[in-house]
Task: inverse folding
């Protein structure tokens, strides 16, 4: 996996997206889920429409999508309160089918095809499996298909779990040698404190030094729908900076957020190599 010779000094989010050809986008469960825990189909359709426009503009897209458990709850609500790991994995097995069906439906309306890739940590640590995964990924993208990647939660256990899709999306971006990772969450980016509880919290729009950042902010925890939190997003950014790949952390709940990031009308946090 090569390190990019990237000079993003002074570049805006709009510049980086405009110059990028290979874009990885990660959508978390918090973005996919409505307040009642069900899948947000309106968001999925809008997102697919925006991806289609980016592809018409010459971009290639790989999607890392959480939401299998959310989709499972949407399908089989009576299991929603069960905490047993076997039920949670079974929910993911049910939900992954539903999730992919929803993605297929919204992308089909834009005359785009999708392909599913389910991964575990072993796939990134075994050279033969990594090569096979890379070849599959490149083939799908080269043929105009959107790969949709998720961790294989139905069979993963602690020893082979990546654990969160923030780091999975970073590993994917490195493997593909992407130009940028756009990571959607439920806040506008990194703040000096939790903006949901602190009205004086300020958005940090540019980050080049992760150690300085960690000394400035308070890291909270995830909510009931996600497996990641701000900590895993910073881990993902650190991985990418090492390889010269910028990362954008933005609020996926904003209407037409991809378009607004691309035209510079919506703020977010940009992590970039110094």
Result:
């Amino acid at each position: 996996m090569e390190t990019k010779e990237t000079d993003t000094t002074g570049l805006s989010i709009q510049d980086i997206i405009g110059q990028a050809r290979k874009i990885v986008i990660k959508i978390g469960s918090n973005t996919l889920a409505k307040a009642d825990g069900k899948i947000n189909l309106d968001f999925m359709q809008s997102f697919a429409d925006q991806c289609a426009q980016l592809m018409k503009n010459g971009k290639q897209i790989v999607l890392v999508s959480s939401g299998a458990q959310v989709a499972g709850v949407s399908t089989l609500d009576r299991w929603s309160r069960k905490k047993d790991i076997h039920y949670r994995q079974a929910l993911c097995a049910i939900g992954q089918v539903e999730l992919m069906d929803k993605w297929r439906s919204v992308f089909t309306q834009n005359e785009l095809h999708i392909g599913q890739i389910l991964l575990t940590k072993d796939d990134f640590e075994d050279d033969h499996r990594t090569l096979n995964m890379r070849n599959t990924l490149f083939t799908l993208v080269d043929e105009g298909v959107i790969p949709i990647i998720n961790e294989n939660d139905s069979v993963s256990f602690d020893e082979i779990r990546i654990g969160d899709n923030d780091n999975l999306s970073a590993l994917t971006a490195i493997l593909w040698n992407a130009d940028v990772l756009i990571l959607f969450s439920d806040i506008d980016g990194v703040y000096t404190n939790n903006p949901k509880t602190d009205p004086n919290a300020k958005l940090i729009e540019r980050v080049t030094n992760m150690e300085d950042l960690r000394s400035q902010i308070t890291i909270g925890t995830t909510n009931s729908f996600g497996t990641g939190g701000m900590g895993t997003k910073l881990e993902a950014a650190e991985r990418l900076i090492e390889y010269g790949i910028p990362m954008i952390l933005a609020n996926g709940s904003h209407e037409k957020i991809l378009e607004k990031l691309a035209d510079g009308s919506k703020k977010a946090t940009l992590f970039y190599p110094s």
User: Anything to note?
Assistant: Strands lie at 22-27, 60-65, 114-119, 146-151, 180-185, 190-191, 203-204, 206-207, 247-251, 269-271.
